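Lecture 7 notes: from sequence to structure.
We start with the chain below.
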Amino acid sequence: MVRRSSGTPTLEEVAALARVGRGTVSRVINNAAGVKESTRLAVRRAIDELGYVPNLAARSLAGRRADAVALVMTNTDWRLFGEPFFSEVVRAVGDALSGTAVQLLLTLVRTDEERKRFVEYARGGRVDGVLLMSVPAEDRLPDMLADAGLPTVLLGRRSGDERVTYVDADNVGGARAAVRHLVAGGRKAIAAITGPPDMYVARCRLRGYQEALAEAGLDHGSALVVQGDFTEASGRRAMAGLIGRHPQLDAVFAASDAMAAGALDALRAAGRRVPQDVAVVGFDDFELAEQTTPPLTTVRQPLDEIGRTMVRLLLEEIEQPEVAWRHVILRTQLVARESA
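Predicted structure tokens for the same chain:
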């Protein structure tokens, strides 16, 4: 008989229950060769009976997996974590991992000290790979992870010359389609509410807006462009300012649904009818887009497909660390509703 301890089961207790040596238990846990099948089964039964959980650090030293990946958010603006984008990404990635044995860990990494600490944590075998989201242009964390040889996949990218694997939506094409839709509806004075300029996604959506205007012969320069930060509050402020400075505007492209929702609030407060006076188009197609008044015309990001693709690429890099970086850009789709 083996007396169960009141605390966490130990390797020695497993060995005693299975009537083998400590080293044999370690070989079974690490799936090493040279252990008889009957002995392996006895050790497995003892592990199950005691509820023993192998030490991850020890397993990693033996070449085993942690069976965990980290989803890292790097943005320093706490307000953004209340926006739909973050919860939708976590849901999409979680759904993509639901059929695997891999656990998803969420963490924030915002300072240089936190970057160093996280890289050491990841190198210590606590996670098998890293998913990154909302990484600004100057952030070195993807490079630090790549230099450490850690499988890494970005949601989006920091620039057009990214040196790690990424999955992105066609932000230029999506914004271009949104503005073309407004032009096709007869709109002439089309404003834009952009995201932060240090984020490549914001620059891409601005570029799509500018290309569509130039294509239609409606290039207004920067007069009708106002910067937001992807939050609803920034969209409300930007729209209020645009109305005051440019009362003639008849449409606005907002680079996120949250900013578009804020713009709708500002237009309502100013007595402007949507879409009769001012048409509004957003970007993302989150649940929020169907709940605004009126429902929001927007550009749909395929977040479920993005989540599945990120997870697939990361698991492939974990299995084959020598694989080349992959760059995947997925199509967007214009969804027309009552706001435009």
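Points to note: Confidence is low (pLDDT under 50) at residues 1-6, 56-62. The chain is about 45% helix and 15% strand.
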